[in-house]
Protein 1
Amino acid sequence: MQTGRHLYVVADDEHHLGVLQADGEQPVQLVRLLPSDLPQDKEQRKRRKPDLEALALLPPHAAWPHGALLALGSGSRPQRCRAVLLLLDAHGAIAGEPRVLDVAALYAPLRERFGDLNIEGAFASGTGLHLLQRANQGAAVNACIAYPLADIVQWIAQGGALPPATITPFELGTVQGVPYGFTDGAALPGGGWIFSAVAEDTPDSYADGRCAGSALGTVNADGTLLSLEPLPGAHKVEGIALLPDGRLLMVTDADDPGQASALLEWRAQAASDSISAGISAGSSRAR
């Protein structure tokens, strides 16, 4: 996620937000989101982690005149039904202390709909806040859950009655017999959106599994899937950010605390307006 000169990365097994400068000249800085520290033991860490999987940029509101970042837990376990709100200043930098939100009420009707709830991506467009439900081997259902933007922002700010959601299911196919599942999304000009998807060989939203492949796809403003293009290599892409110049940044997750995540850059070979019709050519490089 980019705001001004700042890039923000949320991690599912950390209590911190990663902050980078867009020019890449400074090392990653960590901003604490939640108190205390997680255990170093992998299994204990997995049980206790907040599973913050999605990061969305909210538009200005009376309570945050320069916009805000919203980090969302996946909802796959009770302790993962939290969100963290971070207000921004006029330059896109974090202003003030993080606010921890209980989003159990938001997730309760979604859990009834999907059973194995796993919110992995979130992004705001001109009219809505979109949450992406990720499929797995045991529940191969991907969906985009869209809320009217002004109404859901008001709910985040003040609570009250939840606005109605529009739910659109997606069939993304499989690779090596493993279904693709949404991992993140970003708005495109004109109302469409771009997304990342991973085929992870796991029976549910809790267990990790072998990555059979990653892909990028596009959806138009009417909710129609336009493209799904496999990415080269064995990168497990779990986060994307579309920059103003048309470049797409991607973050990987190896599910291994001993292996650092990679920041990848995708350069489309066509003009930026062709991204809206689906990225069909390009190259990626790690940096």
Protein 2
Amino acid sequence: MDYTIKEHEKFRYIDEGNGEPLVLLHGLFGALSNFKSLIEYFRQHNRVVVPMLPLLEMDILHTSVGGLAKFVHKFLEAMDLNAVHLLGNSLGGHVALVHTLKHPERVKSLILTGSSGLFENGMGDSYPKRGDYEYIRKKTELTFYDPKVATKELVDEVYSITNNRLKAIKIIALAKSAIRNNLGEELNQIKQPTLLVWGNNDTITPPFVGREFNKLIPNSELYFVDKCGHAPMMEVPDEFNAILHKFLKKLNEPATVA
């Protein structure tokens, strides 16, 4: 299904369904296609909002995790979105964490999958090799347990970004910013209920990263998914949606009095 990209002030976004807002933040090479199954499922239960993050449009000084977190804050303000369920994959999870630490009043719950913020394996020192399609294809396949998930369309998308010199510089700036911006000391300040969904075969933010987030974020629960890499919502959408739906329903259940 194709979704209408709406515009409000300087923001471009998707806005589908009704109910409590579920805001989705994609990763470094992310696109709307990453969230297709998630949007389709949750638009029946929630208001699903996906801002187009200006990963490659910001000036180089603000091309950072902090710059993106400010953008998300301005977006939520402009859209008057409160008590949001904030979901981020990879770099999007990192941005969600920084935003939550700075503006906890707007966030009802946090959902992280394959998030950076503690540790991640980068593309390696040789990245990005401009013009080397085969290299980009192999690196894109590493995102997933099943390399077939890295379709030609997806590889072409990543290749077109890395093959543009200015875009490649911004990708490197964001990747370096993510590595520098380690949140280990601050995660205990997050009070929101937090769901962590991790692929057991994630080679970019390996399973120990999920366990570390679980240890450091007080009110968090962790789920591992087998035969799954760095993007569970793409690779095992049905399982991911079931875990997330159960988490969101539990948040709205009245507390039982002992």
Protein 3
Amino acid sequence: MENTGHDRITGMDDFFRSQLAQWPLAKKNYDDLNRVLIKDVAMPGNCLVRVQFNLARMRSSAARVDKKSISERPCFLCAGNLPPEQKKIMFGDSYLVLVNPFPIFRRHLTIALTGHTDQLIMGRFGDMLRIARALENYTVFYNGPRCGASAPDHFHFQAGIRGFMPVEEEVRTLPRKRIIEDGTVVIHAMEGYHRNTLVMEGDSAGDLDRWVTKIYDILQGMQPGENEPMLNILAGYYGGIWRVVVFPRGRHRPWQFEAEGEKQILLSPASVDFGGVWITPRQEDYERIDQALIMDIFSQVSLGEVAWAQLLDRLG
């Protein structure tokens, strides 16, 4: 099946049913979602974080993303390395839409570039908006190469069924401050949200792309040693309007990730974690995660307060 341009990517339910009927690994992991442990942690400011113990995510949570480890394994997103059971839908000529066999969502997609190219968003944010418009009822997300991407050597987006992440509702209903109103684009900064967050809304893909580029350039100046500034991005299309959520980052992983013994928490925050769903593949971590730990880890991996103030000042 092929979808191009701004057309909807249709037939996703049939695609999932077909894949789960033909692919035992994927079927087992999607069936196992019925048995994951879930708890809600109320946070100050009337928001929440939903914690999920999901053993199938060990591969992603503990992924080694240093250059040596990447060079020693085949790329699992290149078409020639896909399992024979894994089928694809083409989006235009450039992207493969795939069922993610290690799901967080009940409908979890990976959208991989057809060519083997590093995970760098610049020049491809417009693609993200087109995919968000084409995937009805999904939220599309991007993890930077040091912001949760387990395949930083192959450019890809992911998408999950809409409404799963608390952030999708909270960015509309919780306090936020308008910092930019520029024709077709409005940008807000969330207030009291425990991780510094920008919310962009507009009906012009070109203008949204221009503002994301500006944010990117400002952050790049703050993090000159990075291949790209550290950030996670969510995008959804809502009846003529794109809503884009940008989480600027200050750190790849919290100190607890590399700690030993009882101090270790195997959590490598990515878009979904910033979106309010914390995924851990170990039950002992699931049981230990509470409000204080969530606030501590967010304070480590989110953009620091001084840099955040500089970003808002330069944007405004």
Protein 4
Amino acid sequence: MSRKLLEVENLQAFYDLSHVLQGVSISVMEGTVLSVLGRNGAGKTTLLNSIMAVLKKREGRILYAGKEIQSLPAYKIASLGIAYVPETRGIFPSLTVKENLEIAARKSVGTTNRETWNLDRVYQLFPQLKDRAQNGGAQLSGGEQQMLSIARALMTNPDLLILDEPTEGLAPRIVQEIESFLTELKKEGLTMLLVEQNLSFATSLADQIAVLGKGQIKWVGSPQQFMKEMEIQHTWLGV
């Protein structure tokens, strides 16, 4: 029986005097994908930054594998087995592809029986990165940088992969490739929390959908249910 790997309870988050998240509660079951949808400014990135302690001004409870983590610094949260692929991708432009990957390498801290991620395995999933192994991060295309950002996260051997807008600004062909990569990870049982505006991409990967609007969760349900909720789509996503 699967467990709740990540739980967020009554999360409040602030930027200066702006009250961005107003009582957000979500949970991600182990081995599943939760896609969080919402318009620009809904608070999606703030939610991820709050979970990862990138944003410090926040209140509420955040539990990972049943343990409270909201008081931990970002580096300790990452060390628990959570990998974050930010919207900015965050790769090191002056390091080569290989160096970007090697610097992130870490053994798994979880109890899963999934195969370990290393350079060889990452290159199997992302053959383009193998071809570009000696190129600097700044020499990569946007799609290649996104692949590198995901690959680098996998090198930490996470139990939870958090992704912020992984398809933003990418050509349709690259979006399809990213979807294929993430589908493979889902088949292996990797738990994912995905923030995304591309509806078809988000719904195809998700086991569960959460709609965020004006800093609050407005709807939660399955992708199949979501596709029938035309009013929710129109009101909170502008579809």
